[in-house]
């Protein structure tokens, strides 16, 4: 077992700890602000007990072998600024109201998993969101029109899913967008989208 722990006040960074996430209980760590366990070959399901980390600002479990559903408890940690679950084997749906209690979330990364169903309809409730990555999953259905309300969004990666339907015109309202990845097969639709976005600049 190799561990490196750095503490500054209540900031606790745990890095490179070879444990099974499904056996971890976090109920006694409510002061934790930063939890980084990426690239650790972690296996198992993400524990619901993560929801007890009521002051957590950064949750990074990316590049592991975690599977199962994304625990709904993490969407109730209102202090979260970063959620990074990229490159795992997570499955299931994301709840439509996942952003209802995440007023400070700036970065949401859940790409390269096996998530299914439609995209959450109210991602715009994450009003501070700067970057969104849900690429390389199995999402279906249309892009929610409400995504056009995400005024601070700079990076949006939704490609390599199974999304269908036309791109809603509201997407042209993304005034801060800098990087955009979507599945577009209609060149006319692509030109119309790019023209609408460029007019905002």
UniProtKB/TrEMBL annotation:
Residues 1-21 form the signal peptide. The keyword Repeat applies. Pfam families: LRR_1. The keyword Glycoprotein applies. Keywords: Cell membrane, Glycoprotein, Leucine-rich repeat, Membrane, Repeat, Signal. Its main location: membrane. Gene3D superfamilies: Ribonuclease Inhibitor. It is found in: Cell membrane. GO terms for cellular component: plasma membrane. This is Uncharacterized protein. It comes from Solanum commersonii. The lineage of its organism: Eukaryota, Viridiplantae, Streptophyta, Embryophyta, Tracheophyta.
